[in-house]
């Protein structure tokens, strides 16, 4: 089948043709394609990611660090070597992703290709990656594709996203929300215009793949069929993921009713099977997207004389003709070896995933006792860090209220998070340039229509004490800090008789260290905007990583170091559910009521079906 140009076909007919050609390519791949998908992902999960993780840990050790902490990162002995090693790691990951996509594209076009020919094609592309012109692919594969989710996906790029604490803050004001929306639209537009980059890079010997992609996606009638076809594939993949989740829960529903003592074992192997099927489903969706892009490139190659010629080894019959592979004698291929090999590999992977998950699921089945902390009060009932927000958090039943304290120009303290007043008061002033009296006379407002005054820190703490609401007080640096700002804060809290009834944290490691040295008996946390690998060396009693980097590995490391583990700012229900299942010590959220509702529901669960649904939803995702 030859797809005609958009000028010859309407948008809907072109979309249908792209989908039909993509399905023919995927179907032609049959079990060999499934084997490639499963084997490549297992190699990445079981070999590449652990090796890259080990290299990353060694890179950090070269700089005298046990874990990555952006708050403490800076020029030091070994820092240059650390950066060089991280660059090497990124380069290796880039090559792996490129070769993984190359293998998929080659298999789609040559479903009967042998291992030797496949290795030859991978080598050809690997040599092309050494050219300076391929450097632009790094940003495309590591940032543009993962951030916009339009095109190929890999286990190496999963998790790359705009951190929720950044997007969450931007959404709290109209102007920044509009700016974020524009940024995301630009990302989507760039990804759309560059969608053909990888197929062109792999399928031709020519250079300037990104330029050709930009040129070939010009015009509404050209790019709209691509959008519609890929969207249809992603929607169907989403339905498949939902069906897979429901099917994986059926065995546990039966075991909960008949043999509850064995439920955690059955749940583990159900999860293992779901992970394997999820890898295959996600791979098939990615392959279908690749098929759509291949179909587009083929149509361009046939209708654009100046387009770089397709590599001879890849200039194959159409997918329709290839959908029934033939032996040299012309008879249809009937070998079952590839299918049997895929089934055997899938069974082994299921057993491996399931066995490794038994202990984990037994632990996750415990009822969570996670604390629900209201982030800067409760924004549904009042402006952040104000008296009304504190009262709303108390009325909602939050376990604690997280709030911020900042020093003013004259050395006193107010409850305030932002260093400037632009977002909450529409003023260009900075907190460090205003006195206590000036700040406490200012009215602040939020996107929900609430209004209140900036409160004195003493008034906020006094009311919290009267309400019986413990606080997690964050020491914020706004630029007006006196050398003894921690000592002054302690003195003020002691005068209010509220020092020991609250707990504390800060992004500033110096303030954390000073507070612990001054009052070792206080519970003090170290807040981390980004962390990785291992918990930091800190005098704190707990760490508070941002949700994006609050991995299980980091949580385990904190537990081994004797540190409690709280996470900020968690506002989406899937994130809340995952952290509750993992049993983190606290979740800081703008919606503590949702956290409490989910916690109560989990505590009242009978059986493990709900826990398994959460686990499967976490592992089986269609991007």
Q: Report the span from N to C terminus.
A: 29 Å
The helix content, as a percent range, equals: 55-70%
Beta percentage is 5-15%
- Structural category is alpha/beta
- Work out the number of β strands: 13
Helix segment tally: 22
Characterize the largest beta sheet: strand count, sense, and whether it forms a barrel: 8 strands, parallel, barrel
Low-pLDDT residue spans: 1-7, 313-324
- Broad shape: globular
- Average pLDDT number: 85
**In order across it, which strands form the biggest sheet?**
2-3-7-8-9-11-12-13
Radius of gyration: 28 Å
Describe the structure.
The chain has 623 residues and is an alpha/beta fold. 57% of the residues lie in helices and 8% in strands. The chain is built from 22 helices and 13 strands. The strands form three sheets. The protein has an eight-stranded parallel β-barrel, surrounded by six helices. A two-stranded antiparallel ribbon has the order 1-10. It has a two-stranded antiparallel ribbon with strand order 5-6. Strand 8, helix 18 and strand 9 form a beta-alpha-beta unit. Helix 2 crosses helix 3 and helix 13 runs parallel beside helix 16. The protein starts with 10 loop residues before the first helix and ends with a helix.
Defining traits:
disordered N terminus; 8-stranded parallel beta barrel; 57% helix; alpha/beta; 623 residues; 8% strand
Layout of strands and helices, then pairs:
Elements (H helix, E strand, L loop, with lengths): L10 H52 L5 E2 L9 H31 L5 H15 L6 H13 L15 H7 L3 H20 L3 H7 L5 H8 L3 H39 L4 H41 L15 H4 L14 H28 L6 E5 L11 H10 L3 E8 L5 E3 L6 H4 L10 H5 L2 E3 L5 E3 L3 H11 L3 E5 L9 H11 L7 E4 L2 H10 L5 E5 L2 E2 L9 E4 L6 H9 L3 E4 L5 H10 L3 E4 L2 H12 L5 H11 L4
Parallel strand pairs: 2-3, 2-13, 3-7, 7-8, 8-9, 9-11, 11-12, 12-13
Antiparallel strand pairs: 1-10, 3-4, 5-6
Helix pairs in contact: 1-2, 1-9, 1-10, 1-12, 2-3, 2-7, 2-10, 4-6, 7-8, 9-10, 9-22, 10-12, 10-22, 13-16, 20-21, 20-22
